[in-house]
């Protein structure tokens, strides 16, 4: 087509790109080297004691609140609902899963040891496989072992943050389980 020119990239000097790439690399490396966010003190002091702390603790510790009604039928219904509820079973399984995740999340903070032991016995069928020696029984035994130890230094705190995240996930699962149980028991007691 007349009047249209083909686009061509400008020639790039390799020497002018090296400082730019070096600066970009340094900026990327330095952006990964940041400390965790510091807590900002607000200056507000919490009260020395809470007005309803004792009552709240007493309510929280009364896990079998429905027994205060003194109804054997209610006790039986709640026991049956707790035993047969799929939601409670699923919530309990999620708590176990979160416990395992928390254990696994903390494992990289510990040193790792590995020990390998290997034994091998070979029997040669033909004498041509080995040098003929009248005292040789055509068997060979080979035993090897090794011990390795390794440890990853948590230089930037990423491993500890992963462990802390898994622990908070466990706490959330425990609260979810308590909510499911309380909702179920409240519904049974309400009917």
From TrEMBL:
Against InterPro entries, the record matches this protein to: MdtP/NodT-like, OMP_efflux
Q: Which GO terms describe its molecular function?
A: efflux transmembrane transporter activity
Q: Does the keyword Membrane apply?
A: yes
Q: Which UniProt keywords apply?
A: Cell outer membrane, Lipoprotein, Membrane, Palmitate, Signal, Transmembrane, Transmembrane beta strand
Localization of this protein: Cell outer membrane
Pfam families documented for this protein = OEP
Give the signal sequence positions.
1-37
- Record has Transmembrane as a keyword: yes
What are the record's GO terms for cellular component? membrane
Spell out the family assignment given in the record's similarity comment.
Answer: Belongs to the outer membrane factor (OMF) (TC 1.B.17) family.
How is this protein named in the record?
Outer membrane efflux protein
